[in-house]
């Protein structure tokens, strides 16, 4: 019996030599088939005899005959080589992902800071193209360590916005958005007489509402992109309310003097249904950029690539619509604009 040390030294090529020797029943023909030399194949046969404890090929007149052990080894050697081909060959990797027949489960963690239509559109598109797949949509929160979950294979994709996404993860840029403020329609800043008075100082002095920070892993909770940028400018706003339920914040804004600072796409979905208005942000912010992040574990996966393509496609459609909105003249619900 082969001991563990010898077993760990067995190379896949040696299994290929074994199968070729068995099928050709000749060292010289096996060498030609393998594009090797007869001395090299003879040396490998010697090694195989030592590993199996059997001669495998024996002289029978002018020909070579297979031993009973060699005949038994043909099927397992063939299966092993076929499995290795499925594991490692480029041909297998290119077979891709069949959405119509797949019963995969995709786990996506996403913030709700995005356009409220984004995740429903992602789900609708995926279920239309891959009706049998299952989807688990997980929230990003201060308690959820998305970096650990990606590394552990517990989630396939994370969608959100970061000033500096984690460097150890792969990322795809989805869309960018202008940062604006959402306020109640009777907020003092909405009055036309106050438009020019909407300064950085007045903005900072307002009562603000903000989402709870995200968990970033070993470093703990991130302060969020708004606080990060304000800190880089040595500015600090007065956050009076923090909420884990971002989608409920517009309702809070509508009934108070709170100011929400976030992307225009998110805010625009509420101005027709709530007594709220979008106003420019007097602080110069870079564009709010949304990304999808994934780990090396799923980087080469055909199903992972397909999932990311669907997310990117939906983001492109919504992002284009948002860009068109931003190029139109300001409406009555877009007060205090540049």
Number of domains: 3
- Rg on CA atoms, Å: 31 Å
Spatial gap, N to C terminus: 82 Å
The order of strands across the largest sheet is 9-8-10-7-11-13
The major beta sheet can be summarized as: 6 strands, mixed
Helix- and strand-based class? alpha/beta
CATH class annotation of the largest domain: Alpha Beta
- Percent of residues in helices comes to 40-55%
Low-confidence sequence ranges: 322-334
The total of beta strands comes to 13
Say what the CATH topology of the largest domain is: D-Maltodextrin-Binding Protein, domain 2
Shape: rod-shaped
The CATH architecture term of the largest domain is 3-Layer(aba) Sandwich
Which terms would index this structure?
338 residues; 5-stranded mixed β-sheet; Arc Repressor Mutant, subunit A; rod-shaped; alpha/beta; D-Maltodextrin-Binding Protein, domain 2; 6-stranded mixed β-sheet; 20% strand
Question: Helices, strands, pairings?
Answer:
Elements: H1 4-7, H2 12-24, H3 27-33, H4 38-52, E1 57-60, E2 63-66, H5 68-88, H6 90-93, E3 105-110, H7 118-129, E4 134-139, H8 146-151, E5 157-161, E6 170-177, E7 179-184, H9 200-205, E8 207-211, H10 225-232, E9 238-243, H11 249-254, E10 259-263, H12 264-268, E11 276-280, E12 288-294, H13 296-299, H14 302-327, E13 334-335
Parallel strand pairs: 3-4, 3-5, 8-9, 8-10, 11-13
Antiparallel strand pairs: 1-2, 5-12, 6-12, 7-10, 7-11
Helix pairs in contact: 2-3, 2-4, 2-5, 3-4, 7-14
């Amino acid at each position: 019996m082969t001991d563990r040390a010898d077993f760990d030294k067995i190379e896949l090529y040696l299994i290929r030599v074994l199968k070729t020797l068995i099928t050709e029943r000749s060292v010289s023909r096996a060498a030609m088939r393998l594009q090797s030399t007869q001395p090299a194949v003879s040396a490998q046969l010697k090694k195989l005899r030592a590993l199996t404890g059997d001669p495998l090929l024996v002289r029978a007149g002018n020909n070579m005959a297979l031993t009973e052990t060699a005949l038994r080894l043909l099927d397992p050697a063939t299966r092993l080589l076929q499995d290795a081909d499925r594991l490692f060959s480029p041909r297998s990797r290119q077979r891709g992902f069949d959405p119509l027949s797949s019963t995969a489960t995709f786990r996506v963690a996403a913030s709700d800071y995005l356009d409220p239509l984004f995740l429903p559109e992602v789900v609708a598109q995926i279920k239309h193209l891959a009706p049998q797949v299952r989807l688990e949509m997980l929230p990003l929160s201060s308690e959820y360590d998305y970096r650990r979950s990606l590394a552990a294979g517990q989630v396939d994709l994370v969608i959100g916005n970061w000033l500096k996404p984690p460097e150890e993860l792969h990322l795809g840029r989805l869309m960018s958005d202008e940062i604006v403020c959402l306020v109640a329609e009777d907020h003092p800043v909405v009055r036309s007489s106050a438009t020019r008075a909407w300064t950085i100082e007045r903005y900072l002095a307002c009562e603000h509402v903000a989402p709870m920070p995200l968990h970033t892993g070993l470093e703990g909770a991130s302060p969020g992109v708004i606080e990060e940028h304000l800190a880089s400018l040595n500015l600090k706003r007065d956050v009076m309310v923090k909420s884990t339920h971002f989608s409920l914040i517009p309702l809070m804004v509508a009934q108070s003097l709170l100011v929400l600072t976030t992307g225009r796409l998110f805010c625009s979905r509420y101005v027709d249904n709530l007594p709220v208005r979008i106003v420019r942000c007097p602080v110069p912010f870079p564009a709010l950029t949304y990304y999808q992040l994934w780990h090396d574990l799923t980087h080469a996966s055909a199903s992972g690539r397909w999932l990311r393509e669907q997310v990117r496609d939906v983001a492109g459609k919504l992002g284009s619509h948002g860009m068109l909105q931003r190029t139109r003249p300001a409406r009555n619900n877009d007060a205090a604009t540049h």
